[in-house]
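Structure representation:
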Amino acid sequence: MTVLRLVGVTLPDGLARELFVLDGRITFTRPAAEVRTIVDGGWLLPGLVDMHAHPGLSHGDAEDPFRAACADLLDQGVTAARVPGLPVPLPPDADTDPELPTLTVAETWLLHSSLGEGMSLHRHVDDLGAAAAAAARPGGWVKIIGDWEPDADPAPLDQVRAAVLAAHAAGARVAVHCQTAAGCAVAVAAGVDSLEHGMHLDHALLPTMAAQGTAFVPTIATFADEAERVRSKPAGPRRDWYLNGLDGLAPSVAAAVEAGVRVFAGTDSPPRSGLADEIGHLHRAGLSTADAIGAASWAARDWLGWQGLVEGAPADLVALDTDPRLDLAALRHPRLVLLRGRIVRSQAVS
């Protein structure tokens, strides 16, 4: 059996290290076996994590949009993703398929009937608590649509709170889509685990979010990608609502970090530039380059219960030629990507 060897500066600790991959896992002790060096110099970081992905929602021209999207994630160095709403059935072997990134999934979007039609992907329910109990899986996620139309009431607080209690009782966590101030307020009052998008977020909610551990996944890039199209539309309340909400996201991120709220990087599947674009938005909003990278790598992994570059961890990692803390553009050009010890992208190894 050939052992893979990588030499480089590991992140986030910034140490020059030598690591090995044996049976798909990381070890820092040289095994007594043939060694093949695949990286000799550069920077090594835990595989990236898209914290808000919907694989299968894009890549509609592909024969299998889900697998095409997953392949695109891997090519970017995204070896894991949180999927708060899956538009296609999850393959039964997703947990063991060597071609797929590690996924933690909410398989459906739950929309309370009071919110109206929503989207065709949404599952309309009258009882969010019962629906969450049925959808929850230990270690997984439940996705709730907290609001929909900008001028309409959000999901009822008692319904969202019941869903949170039911999901937590089953060992799952709850992510809530919110794009209005009222929707954000309901989500935070209900004690959700993550606030998705958070347009028009009232900063007065941030201390509560920090205290109860509600994370913030702003998905700035996906809204920014649409900004030019929205600006071309005639002036009106909906246009203003969207653009004002987009303009408020960066200040909300900065305020969230200041308040101690965990902020993570997610693409909403995906913006044209991928996860690196969202990392850039987080940095421009006020995160240091290291923290912006961590929001899509080691910090995200820690929050989800996945390991980084530690002894015995699955060998999910990205190798870069230059230090991404000095130039985030390095993330767009990974030299090598390992998924559970298997090379899925390489510019240096045939």
